[in-house]
Amino acid sequence: MKRFAIGFVMVLIAVVVQPQVLAQAEKESHSHMGHVTKSWGDTPDNVGLLTILEEEAQIAAQHAGFAARDLSDLSSMQTHTRHVRHAIDAASESGGPGKGYGSVKAAQGVSRHIGLASNAGDASDNVKLHAEHVKSSADNVVKWGQEIMQLSEKVLSASSADQAAPSIQQIQELTQHIVNGTDANGDGRVGWQTGEGGVAQAKQHMGFMESGEES
Fold it and tell me: Which of 54, 77, 95, 159 has the most CB atoms within 10 Å of its CB?
């Protein structure tokens, strides 16, 4: 009976202590990487910041396409522009098809946390290298998202379809930049650099970073 009691206590200690030990053992850089790819406290369903960024970006691009489908229909253009706005900056609209977080906020979060991962004392050269690439792409998304919000104001204040159409076309182009990046320097490929990388490039380089940490 005494041996059973001792054994039970040891098992109980292991159950209580092991998660704490594991948590303490996790690298600070990896914790911030996890905020980007796995879970963050204020996102819908606590998904990773990059996950919600991709979801919102795709919604924005979809509705930008809807807005551009008929450039003679001002009402439709303005309706779908509001939907784009909701997916870019959720606070700008009272409702819409977005997830309620916003691409800009998500991209700012990705940029912030990948920067924290890179600056952590235990960050490897691999983390530091790819963090620069992820951060640059996320910062591009923030810039493009802010440009979309400015263009959307022109659409919503337009008094005719002809007046709104050029801004709609620019919005559609910028949402594609956000999702897929763009070959800004004309070298035949889309990189992670300022003005080029979007969500796809941020995901790609997060994958490189995670693979490098596993090896």
Answer: 77
Q: Copy the structure tokens of residue 17.
A: 């202590």
Instruction: Tell whether 129 is covered by a domain.
Output: yes
Structural domains in the chain (count): 1
Provide φ and ψ at 158, rounded to 5°: -70, 145
Q: Is residue 5 part of a domain?
A: no
pLDDT single digits (tens) 73-123: 999 999 999 999 999 999 999 999 999 999 999 999 999 999 999 999 999
Answer whether residue 7 is part of any domain: no
What tokens were used for 214? Answer: 């596993």
pTM over 0.70: yes
CA–CA distance, 107 with 74 (Å, rounded to integer):
30
Q: Which domain holds residue 139?
A: 26-214
DSSP code, position 89: -
Q: 136-139 long-range contacts, Cβ below 8 Å, gap at least 24?
A: 136/192, 136/193, 136/194, 136/197, 137/181, 137/192, 137/197, 137/198, 137/199, 137/201, 137/202, 137/205, 138/53, 138/107, 138/108, 138/110, 138/111, 138/114, 138/202, 139/107, 139/111, 139/194
Per the domain annotation, does 190 fall within a domain? yes
